[in-house]
Amino acid sequence: MSDVYDVICVGAGSTGLPLAIKAAERGANILQIEADNRIGGTLHWSSGQIAAAGTRLQKENNISDTPDAHYEDAQRVANGQIDPTVLRLFVDNAADTIDWLMDIGFKPAAGTPVAGESHEAYSTRRYLWGDNQAISILDALRPVHEKLVADGKIDLRLEHRLKSLISDDSGAVTGVVVDTLNGEQTFHGKNVVLACGGYAAGPDLWNDLNPEIPLCSHCNPYSRGDGIVAARELDAQINGKEKFLCTFAGWLEDESDPTSGEFLALSPKARNIWEIFVDVNGKRFMKEDHQSIDYRERNLLKQPGMRMNIVFDEGIRQNASPITMLDPEALKAKFGAHPNFVKADTIEGLASELGIPANALKATVDEYNASVDSDEDKAWDKFFLIRKIENPPFYGIKAMGITVLSPAGVAVDEKLRVLNTSGSPIPNVYAAGEVLGFGRTSGNAFVGGLSLTPAMAFGKILGERMLSW
Ligand SMILES: Cc1cc2nc3c(=O)[nH]c(=O)nc-3n(C[C@H](O)[C@H](O)[C@H](O)COP(=O)(O)OP(=O)(O)OC[C@H]3O[C@@H](n4cnc5c(N)ncnc54)[C@H](O)[C@@H]3O)c2cc1C
After folding, report:
1. Which of 133, 452, 456 has most ligand 1 atoms within 8 Å of CB, for mutation?
2. How far is the CA of 405 from the centre of ligand 1 (A)?
3. How far, in Å, from the CA of 15 to the mean position of ligand 1?
4. What is the model's pTM?
5. Would you list the domain boundaries of the chain?
6. What distance in Å separates the CA atoms of residue 33 and residue 469, rounded to the nearest whole number?
7. How far is CA 228 from each of CA 223, 236, 326, rounded to the nearest angstrom?
8. What are the E-state strand segments in 168-306?
9. How many contiguous H segments (helices) and E segments (strands) does the chain have?
10. Which CATH number fits domain 4-200+220-239+406-466: 3.40.50.2000, 3.30.390.30, 2.20.25.90, 3.50.50.60?
11. What is the DSSP letter of 370?
12. Residue 181, Cβ neighbours under 10 Å: how many?
């Protein structure tokens, strides 16, 4: 391969894999650097839920849908907060991406597409996934990518971490500086694409961009925001940090590690919610089993520190469906042994363990128990009034909003060229995927599939037609 690559792709994840495949199929001389020792990136973590309008799968199911309808629907769910240019580019190219994935072996799960599942529903059935979360997608991409690497058409370098971008006197990007196991190396390219993900696993950048949002993340540990840092050094425009919504909800396994977030099972679609949720004042603040995930997430977002306390008793512990992925005995052992899992013999004692006012928690529990007796929750209209909270020991989980995606990112134009702070493209450098910021592709809401699908769609079209050399 020559000393100057046609394309340098930073990252071999959801964006980078389609990009490298398509660019190599066009005959580009491509270098793909990947910080991890394996390809796949967030595909190893993601639920793999994707969405597009006008797919072959929809046609086979007699669902009529259009990119315009997808555009309107996405902005409706996202309160009009999605970047219009980026959304237009996405909806116009999403169906081709999913059709192509199916061509190379991706199999949608039975019963998909649906209108909604874990997020607010679309107005039509355009939302789908494979049987094995995003691994189903990786399983389709991997053999195609592997063959191109084996044939020498993609120069893949694992354990190569982008450190900075190189630019010439005119400001045009000409290459990358990379940290490798053998020290620092420099590579030159005609096009550099930042496809290296978000920053939810990068506490330093997180605290710089989103200091007001406490980080409790559960994501790929390589999502450290390196692309954003490198672009910012070249005066790239970074925006969208305010478009944040937490995921409902979890706990920090290690209080000293903001990336040690773990999920609780709190969806009323997945299990009946027998517990109550109380705020820092010991009062309930939401309908715990509201069917809208958006309602639940936004109520938690409004709480100080995105924190809430889950309160229940021994009867609920023994009889309700598991609230964590842990084995019930392992969970039981956690209470009293982990700072976020507490127990006490009285409600007042539990309040003390949770650090909330005892009188207020006692009054809240008494009122809730009366609601169970009367089968009517006048305060919050909770549906599952199954058991009173009355048998010691009493349990509390200190829960908080989880972060799986980072909101801010690199601004781009309709060709995915990185823009500087004056709004002009920085020559030769492109960005796609979560490095753009989740806020840019999904607004301040979770619109079904609107992070993973744009990542793959933008990788594909960059490789296919947006880069020239
Ligand atoms: C738990 C979870 C569930 C999710 N579920 C969904 C879902 O159902 N639907 C949806 O739309 N979205 C979902 N997402 C989000 C979505 O999966 C991601 O936003 C998307 O996969 C990101 O793609 P990407 O290409 O930008 O990043 P990645 O897929 O992470 O790829 C980036 C690659 O760059 C590498 N890299 C990082 N820094 C460097 C560097 N300095 N040098 C070289 N390489 C580097 C990384 O190791 C990685 O391989 C979920 C995310 C999580 C964490």
Report:
1. 452
2. 9
3. 8
4. 0.96
5. 4-200+220-239+406-466, 247-402
6. 19
7. 11, 8, 36
8. 173-180, 183-194, 238-239, 247-252, 261-263, 276-278
9. 14, 18
10. 3.50.50.60
11. H
12. 9
Nearest to 67 by CA among 82, 79, 81, 51: 51
How many Å apart are CA 182 and CA 112, to the nearest integer? 47
> Would you give the end-to-end CA distance of the chain in angstroms?
15
Amino acid at 145: H
Calculate how far, in angstroms, residue 433's C-alpha sits from the geometric centre of ligand 1: 7
> How much distance in Å is there from the Cα of 211 to the middle of ligand 1?
22
Distance separating alpha carbons of residues 223 and 42, to the nearest angstrom: 8
By CB atoms closer than 10 A (0-12, 13-18, 19+), residue 110 is exposed
Q: Which two tokens stand for residue 440?
A: 């840019």
β-pair type (173-180, 4-10): unpaired
Q: Which residue has the tokens 């909330």?
A: 356
Which two three-digit tokens encode residue 237? 């425009």
Identify the CATH number of the domain defined by range 247-402.
3.90.700.10
Q: Where are the beta strands (DSSP E) in 11-152?
A: 30-34, 50-51, 127-128
Instruction: Going residue by residue through the chain, which has 469 residues, state the pLDDT in tens, using 9 for 90 and above.
Output: 458 999 999 999 999 999 999 999 999 999 999 999 999 999 999 999 999 999 999 999 999 999 999 999 999 999 999 999 999 999 999 999 999 999 999 999 999 999 987 788 999 999 999 999 999 999 999 999 999 999 999 999 999 999 999 999 999 999 999 999 999 999 999 999 999 999 999 999 999 999 999 999 999 999 999 999 999 999 999 999 999 999 999 999 999 999 999 999 999 988 999 999 999 999 999 999 999 999 999 999 999 999 999 999 999 999 999 999 999 999 999 999 999 999 999 999 999 999 999 999 999 999 999 999 999 999 999 999 999 999 999 999 999 999 999 999 999 999 999 999 999 999 999 999 999 999 999 999 999 999 999 999 999 999 999 999 9
Mutation pick for ligand 1 pocket among 42, 181, 446 (CB with most ligand atoms within 8 Å): 42
In the structure encoding, which two tokens stand for residue 153, read together? 């058409």
Q: Of the candidates 15, 2, 7, 9, which has an alpha carbon nearest to the alpha carbon of residue 434?
A: 15
Distance between CA atoms of residues 184 and 178, nearest Å: 6
